[in-house]
Amino acid sequence: MYYLGEKYELIKATIKKYNLKNMISYLCKVADVSRSGYYKYFLVENEKLRNFKEKQDLLAKENVLKAFNYKGRKKGARQIKMVLKDKFNIIYNLKRIRRIMNKYDIICPFRRANPYRRMMKATKEHTIVPNLLNREFKQGIPGKVLLTDITYLRYKNGKKAYLSTIKDSSTNEILAHYVSDNLRLNIVLNTLKKLTLNKTLKLHSEAILHSDQGVTIRALNFKV
User: Fold this and answer.
1) Residue 164 to residues 85, 182, 195, 217: CA-CA distances in angstroms?
2) Model pLDDT, residue 159
3) pTM to 2 decimal places
4) What is the pLDDT of residue 202?
5) Which three-class secondary structure state does DSSP give residue 31?
6) Helix axes of 35-68 and 94-103: crossing angle, nearest 10 degrees
7) Partners of 177 in the beta sheet?
8) Contact present, 20 and 27 (Cβ < 8 Å)
């Protein structure tokens, strides 16, 4: 003996298996159930399913937002996936994360393209220069081999500052430094200016300023 709900499920399974979409009325009659009852049953079941899925999405939204705002820095779907796994032990695939972000308007701000990278691409100023040092940084001669680099400094509310330094590779002394809130060319120019204004500093006649040829450094094409 079948319960009413079981009869409805059996009718639906039969229709799906044999592609009998136009025989709902006939199958309801054979099963001794009403056609309206059949439709009402699945209307209620679909509503229950929708409610269940909505609850699941709301829970996923809370988890995605936790990762999205983790440490005060907004993130894209890939970073959210990693943070959920590494920090909250939650596994979501990218498709689900992106669907939740779209559904609830969780928007990651796009990173602005570096204007100097575009500039170098347009002017072809990204040619690799000769490696004069060949990684012989420690030559034991103060003021000859200078190293320059830019470091990212994070502070409150996910903000960034940029520290540009010039270091003597032999003495490890910081000869000049400059802090900026952006990566414009003047961060390097101002660091060099501070270096040249240091009257107590004596550079070697064959001094070399070495960098990793990062985008901001490459755009200058300068010599010490």
Assistant:
1) 34, 11, 12, 10
2) 80
3) 0.41
4) 79
5) coil
6) 100
7) 165
8) yes
